[in-house]
Design a protein that fits this description.
Elements lengths: L3 E6 L3 H11 L5 E7 L2 H11 L3 E5 L7 H11 L4 E6 L4 H10 L3 E4 L4 H12 L7 H17 L8 H5 L3 H11 L4 H8 L3 H15 L4 H10 L8
Helix pairs in contact: 2-3, 3-4, 4-6, 6-11, 8-10, 8-11, 9-10
Length: 224
Amino acid sequence: MDTIRVMLVDDHALLRQGLTRLLELDEDLEVIGQTATGTAALAMVQDIHPDVVVLDVNLPDMTGIEVAGRIRKLCPEIRILALTIHDDVSYISEMIRAGVDGYMLKDAEPARLIGAIKRIGVGESVFPSHLMEKVVERYYRISEEYGRIQTAATLEELQLTPREQEVLQCIVQGLSNKEIAAQLFISEKTVKNHITSLLRKLNVDDRTQAAVYAVTKGLFKTPL
């Protein structure tokens, strides 16, 4: 694995220092920059071009949601991990809309945080299953309330293969590529190929959008 270059954005200096020490214990990660404000972060990403930005939701000059959205427009190739104390579904939903690639709580185990950064660095999305359930259920309730749930016949219209349907169900459950591969007894490369195909068929950009689409369109009988 190539070294993943990380930038930290958090207004607490002690947290940034602690994260820097933690991440640099792993030979696959390198912290190349850190800052305390959204304004500085927007300038820094254009200057140092990190692979992954670890971004706090609450910053003194603007919200992490605003910063994530602007980073996505300025440097769409940069991956973003939201790191916060909030597990409220509204925060999660807004960060997803802003384009983050992952969402972790600050009380997560160090090994899980390192693993999340690595997964995001290689192109995966990371949303803990219990948080993803909240988001999907919220979208499901909203869609049901406004009559947007479609019938499962849409699966045939989308021409998803049986295997692609299985992979999509696993994505809705918040499983990683490795976990999907183990559950379906296929290789991770095959999982990636199926995901690429189903994203194209669903006309969405990433697996998070695919999960939300699957539920709001009623592709499966139950939300989870």
